């Protein structure tokens, strides 16, 4: 599969705007939690570039490889804290809004795990990775060769 376009070259102002949001969430969301959220959304969106990047980044930051593999089956895994589970559930529902949106159950669990500000920043983080995934998938952005 060949990359269709380089968004930074074609629409640099738009790309920089998304990058600004990325910089905000990096500064305001716990790094470990952010990488789990990015990896989960990227898996749901089938973004090979982002799955590669965020799993690699998480490993470099010291994340356990078993936890990274378990992100794909997080509901059945014992490796995630209640806070991480709430964030992953929210990631699933924000990423796949479908007909139900974010359920009251998932919202309540997220509210129990995070302050209002943390929850707002988490929603911004989930939304941002979804923008990156949509850019990557639509333009056929590819991870570096092995």
Automatic annotation (TrEMBL):
<dbReference type="InterPro" id="IPR003779">
    <property type="entry name" value="CMD-like"/>
</dbReference>
<dbReference type="GO" id="GO:0051920">
    <property type="term" value="F:peroxiredoxin activity"/>
</dbReference>
<feature type="domain" description="Carboxymuconolactone decarboxylase-like">
    <location>
        <begin position="12"/>
        <end position="93"/>
    </location>
</feature>
<dbReference type="InterPro" id="IPR004675">
    <property type="entry name" value="AhpD_core"/>
</dbReference>
<dbReference type="Pfam" id="PF02627">
    <property type="entry name" value="CMD"/>
</dbReference>
<dbReference type="InterPro" id="IPR029032">
    <property type="entry name" value="AhpD-like"/>
</dbReference>
<protein>
    <submittedName>
        <fullName>Carboxymuconolactone decarboxylase family protein</fullName>
    </submittedName>
</protein>
């Amino acid at each position: 599969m060949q990359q269709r376009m380089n968004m930074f070259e074609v629409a640099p102002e738009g790309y920089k705007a998304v990058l600004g949001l990325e910089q905000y969430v990096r500064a305001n969301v716990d790094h470990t939690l952010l990488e789990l959220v990015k990896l989960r959304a990227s898996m749901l969106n089938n973004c090979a570039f982002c799955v590669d990047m965020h799993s690699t980044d998480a490993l470099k930051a010291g994340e356990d490889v078993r936890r990274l593999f378990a992100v794909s089956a997080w509901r059945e895994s014992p490796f995630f804290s209640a806070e991480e589970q709430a964030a992953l559930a929210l990631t699933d529902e924000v990423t796949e809004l479908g007909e139900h949106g974010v359920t009251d159950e998932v919202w309540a669990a997220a509210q129990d795990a995070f302050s209002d500000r943390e929850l707002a920043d988490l929603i911004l983080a989930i939304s941002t990775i979804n923008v990156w995934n949509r850019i990557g998938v639509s333009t056929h952005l590819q991870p570096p060769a092995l």
